[in-house]
Design goal:
Blueprint lengths: L1 H26 L18 E7 L5 E5 L5 H7 L23 E4 L8 H8 L6 E2 L5 H5 L6 H14 L16 H7 L3 E2 L5
Length: 188
């Protein structure tokens, strides 16, 4: 029985030493320097203004890298009179940009044609028009009007009205809507 007390005493001493060792490891101060965590960088959203034939025109905040299609979706989609073909839905938006959704030009009724037949139609000369004149054309907003002027300044005057489709942001649908309202200023 004496041997059992020795073993019991030995296990108790070992247990106490292990407990003191674990307590020492837990309570001692850490070595080295603390790590400082830096928050991940956040990007500021862009603000755009969308107007025209859209369900909910207004200001919208979108993530950087958003496209025109994202702005259309944020504004609850096109209205039923929107000309969605006139926009490049894949174009990347920039902060402060205005997106103007043009409408589909509806054919004039015969009554309105009769009333306006006596009034001369004032055509917009795309070789000399300023931004406000070009902006008055259906489907042409201020950004597209400025693109027409920039293209004209870089490439010289338009030789025929069909040349306007070479301007970025103007497609065949937009040209079809404005072809009867523009001129290059040459007389027959």
């Amino acid at each position: 029985m004496n041997k059992n007390w020795y073993w019991l005493a030995a296990f108790m001493v070992i247990g106490i030493l292990l407990g003191v060792g674990v307590l020492f490891l837990i309570t001692r101060p850490p070595k080295g320097f603390p790590i400082t965590l830096i928050p991940a960088p956040t990007t500021s959203p862009i603000t755009i203004y969308i107007s025209g034939e859209i369900m909910q025109p207004g200001l919208y905040r979108l993530p950087p890298g958003s496209r025109v299609n994202d702005a259309i979706l944020a504004a609850a989609g096109f209205s039923e009179d929107a000309n969605s073909e006139a926009l490049n839905l894949a174009e990347i938006l920039e902060d402060g940009e205005k997106v103007d959704v043009p409408g589909i030009q509806k054919p004039l009724s015969t009554e309105s044609i009769t009333r306006s037949a006596n009034q001369p139609i004032s055509l917009v000369n795309i070789n000399s028009a300023m931004v406000n004149e070009l902006d008055s054309l259906p489907g042409i907003g201020p950004i597209t009007a400025q693109a027409i002027i920039d293209y004209r300044d870089a490439n010289g005057p338009f030789k025929k009205i069909e040349d306007i489709v070479d301007v970025p942001r103007i497609g065949q649908v937009t040209f079809d809507n404005i072809k009867d309202l523009i001129t290059v200023g040459t007389s027959p």
